[in-house]
Amino acid sequence: MPDTADRQVLNSRKICDVCSEPGKPFSVLSNAWEEHLRSKVHRRHSKHTSISREEWIAQEKAKGLARKAEREALKAAEMAVKAAKEAEEARK
Ligand SMILES: [Zn+2]
Hints:
By secondary structure, the chain is mainly alpha-helical. The chain has one domain. A two-stranded antiparallel sheet has the order 1-2. The longest helix is centred in the last third of the chain and has 39 residues. The N and C termini lie far apart (about 105 Å). The structure holds zinc ion.
């Protein structure tokens, strides 16, 4: 009789979070897991994700907000200059 329980363990797969992409889970056979962690593919991906996806998104968001704040500050400064000029004109 075949030992199906054993075979299931051999054939079970682990999802590698590092190598997975959104909607594309990267699964590795459990018995090849250790090997996978040392593989080029995995190391390339882990270099890529030295920061987590969430951290990256947060960083991009912060950058976007900083740029927006900069633009708004510039606009406010321009408005202030314009208002000052207009006040000067009115005084004449
Ligand atoms: Zn991996």
